[in-house]
Amino acid sequence: MTTKKLPIKILAYAFLLCVTIVVLFPVYVTFVTAFKTTAESTQNFFSLPSSFYLGNFKQVMADEHFGDYVKNSLLITLISVGLISFIVPMVSYAIARESKRHTYFRVIYVAILLSMFAPFQALMTPLTQLCTKLGIMNQGGLILFPGIIVQFLWNWKRLQPLTDVPPHRPFLRLYSRWQNP
Questions:
Q1: Distance of CA 88 to the CA centre of its chain
Q2: End-to-end Cα separation, the chain, in angstroms
Q3: Averaged over 77-82, what is the pLDDT?
Q4: Whole-structure pTM over 0.90, yes or no?
Q5: Which end of the chain is less enclosed by CB atoms within 10 A, N or C?
């Protein structure tokens, strides 16, 4: 490695370390506070728990509607992931194929990318208010309207440029990657 590239690599790894800390710190706080009593959490929020306290979990699971919460979460997640897995590849393929010819597809692509930078609450709160006004704040409405839209926008990671793939052979590029490692 040349000495010219060393400072760039050091900065890159320092940046990645900072991003890792920013991402993992909330996970640490969540797990640590889950095993603390309320008094222990207020005393020293970031410290490790003094004992393995499971009372918080017992309290949540003792709720008479806990089974309904789990069932609703599983139902919404499974339906949303299924629909996202079905819809996103088709939309991404259409956007990748047509974005050079039609401005409409470029606008949709930019809108989807910009929506990923919005916090989850900024997307979910207006959709929840809209669902309330429409009278669909029930299990079916939560699955069909905000759950799918927000997760669709939130889980859209990136589009791979598929412009070199013929329209009648969408898996040709993927297959050629497997053949040529």
A1: 14
A2: 25
A3: 85
A4: no
A5: C
